[in-house]
Write a structure and sequence with these properties.
By secondary structure, the chain is of the alpha/beta class. Helix content is 40%, strand content 16%. The strands form 3 sheets. A 4-stranded mixed β-sheet has the order 5-6-7-8, sandwiched between helices. The protein has a two-stranded parallel ribbon with strand order 1-2. A two-stranded antiparallel sheet has the order 3-4.
Length: 265
């Protein structure tokens, strides 16, 4: 059965930005050494995951089975940095919530809570402590790993945790679709939107962003925009965090801002 990075790709989950696994190899997973899979002519790296005995594989097609996403996340814990483990957890919660058969009727918040319970209930393994700690930061409603990294960068500067994927009450586009914000502090009417390259190159996306932001600014919101440059290095992240902190404090939020990033753990 395919495992780890291959399972993520097969199930449309973004790969971690940093991972020490050799992605030129096909990684497979089995519950015991006896059941390890090897194929002649195909460079493979077999892994043993004893917890696999308690789960059902995900059927991709009649010939291909993959490790389910929660087990994939836990198996990757020793191979990715802590913040990437959180970003991957966010992405997996979103991916499961958007797949009707996989969600089993659960909301994204219930799936996130289920991931935390899953991590706590696993037998001891290298990376379990990181998984349990990461669950304290994983959130529902996150659309991209860059949004996760942006949120975590702000938290590391002491900024209170925002609400991801916030739907603004009573605000809709001309089409009638609800307006959502990448992350928001609703009490202070402050939000951060992450603009990737598609926000600049896709004319329809640009118009949609402009319509939303103009409407919200007219209703008292402060919208701060983050980009790849915002996240490029510690100085850029600190400058962005200071701007967000200032907006929040001007609206009455009270917290201690840290000019230098602090570790999440």
């Amino acid at each position: 059965m395919f495992g780890m990075t291959t399972s993520l790709m097969l199930q449309s989950v973004p790969l971690p930005a940093t991972c020490d696994l050799d992605t030129s190899l096909l990684h497979t997973v089995s519950s015991t050494k006896r059941r390890r899979t090897r194929r002649r002519g195909i460079p493979t790296q077999p892994h043993v995951w004893r917890a696999l005995a308690d789960t059902e594989p995900v059927r991709i097609n009649r010939h291909v089975y993959a490790l389910d996403l929660m087990h994939t996340w836990a198996q990757l814990a020793p191979h990715v940095p802590f913040e990437e483990l959180i970003a991957l957890g966010d992405a997996i919660v979103t991916a499961i919530a958007r797949r009707s058969p996989s969600s089993h009727g659960r909301t994204a918040t219930q799936i996130r809570d289920g991931l935390a319970a899953f991590a706590a209930g696993l037998p001891a393994f290298r990376g379990k402590r990181a998984c349990v700690a990461a669950c304290g930061h994983i959130m529902a409603g996150v659309d991209s790993p860059m949004e996760t990294r942006n949120r975590l960068a702000l938290i590391r500067h002491g900024i209170p945790c925002p609400v991801p994927g916030y739907t603004v009450p009573g605000m809709t586009f001309a089409s009638g679709a609800p307006m959502t914000l990448d992350m928001a502090w609703p009490e202070q009417l402050v939000a951060v939107e992450y603009d990737g390259d598609q926000h600049r190159t896709d004319k329809n996306q640009w118009r949609r962003d402009t319509e939303k932001r103009d409407r919200l600014l007219g209703h008292g919101w402060i919208i701060r925009v983050a980009t790849g440059a915002t996240m490029a290095n510690a100085d850029a992240r600190a400058e962005h965090a200071f701007g967000v902190a200032r907006s929040l404090m001007l609206r009455g939020a009270e917290f201690t801002f840290h000019p230098v990033e602090r570790p999440l753990r």
